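pasting for ref
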Amino acid sequence: MLHDGLTYMHEHTTIDLSRLKNIDDTNLNCFDETVSEYKKLYIKGVRNIVDVTNMDMKRNPEYVQKVAELSGINVVQSTGFYQDKFLPDFVKDATIDELAEFMINEIENGIAETSIKAQIIGEIGTSKDIMTEQEHKVFTAAVIAQKQTDVPITTHTTLGTYGHEQVAFFKKQGANLEKIVIGHVDLTGDIDYILYMLDQGVYVEFDTIGKENYQPDILRAKMLREIEKSGFDDKIFLSMDITRKSNLEHMGGIGYSYLLDKFVPLALENGVSEQFIQKMLRYNPQVFMS
């Protein structure tokens, strides 16, 4: 359950992808600095962060819980498995039913050896332009777990690709589309691509706000304006997907507050309504997570 207030729907409080990326920057383990930034978010009205760090992102649920307690922000934690090259051997060896049971157990009883219960499945991912055999297992298991627990699913699309195919998969599997959000769609830069998914009934995220090396924020703002005009303003979330030390303020990065301090004013200046901003950050997450 979410607290009343603003929600960032796709973040990582701590994450370590350095074993494959081969740079320490991708080991986000800055505890004090993260607490400090989350406290700033709290002052700005943020009350919830959905943390989508799962198996083999080197998740650390107790670390995340401590950050939550010290900052005052309700941090929702997740279960599941990421994208193919980050999957643990367990996924290869396990059956689909075993993967589903793993996720169900973390939702009903607690993540790993803790009593911290997962409240969302994800981020489950597909590779660039493809869903691998292992990813197919994970997605199938996630739908089984969703059907048993009724928790939402949040996905990763590599550079925004394979989103339509993810939606088609969920439809074929009979998943609850009202409880599914397709991630990183802003990276497509293609408004028609995004509108198609919204028309299918899923939620989508503009969750790489501030990552202008991928896509300029002005384009994100213009696409949001078009989505609002098209009447899909109930189905969008905003977030930043911070994963690197260099993203944090103390390293000279944009920091978690960028979304509220910089992007929201930019969106308003470019025709996005205040009402739509409030829906994306305040009301839509409440409906999705309820």
